[in-house]
Amino acid sequence: MMTKIVDHGVARGFDSQQINLAVKAAFIESSMGMPNAMATRPGTSHVGLYQYDPVTWKTQNHNGSITSVDSQIEAFYDDIIYYTGRYNSLTSAQRGNLPLDEYIYVKHHDGRNYTDFSGAPGLGIYRGTCFQPELHVNESGGEPPPGHPNPNAPYLYWWSPAITDKTGKVTVRNVEPLAAAPTDDGDGYS
Prior knowledge:
Distance between the termini: 35 Å
Number of helices: 7
Order of helices and strands: HHHHHHHEEE
Strand order of the largest sheet: 1-3-2
């Protein structure tokens, strides 16, 4: 799922901080879509990777089906653009000490018109989440390996406990071509 989120962000020109937010929000809202990316939260009408509800989906004029992973990813990035514009129009007194990523998550979780930033339920959730992804996008990389799901991707990224440190940092690096796997013809020699 992270591959889809990162690919979409890079393809649309989002920066590392915005992509981080999209990854973290997907983790908070649906555990990155695990085990079912389009599950409905029990007792609610919230559905999918980013847990949109049908009323919000329609009100915010999101494209595609609310039950599509790709549409949910596109919608969240659209929300990043929308809420960044609103954040930038606030005075420093209106923002308080709330950084942009927290503002966007509060708006996503608590609604477009929510203004009690210090008491926002979404703020407590966002700050209380243990997973702190930190993507480092290196856009000067080479060509993706054959068969990569995004043939225009100038990078290789991954997410695995073996290559993340204890803070949950995820590193995005240039593509390094893999050596051809040795063949085994059954004689004990590769």
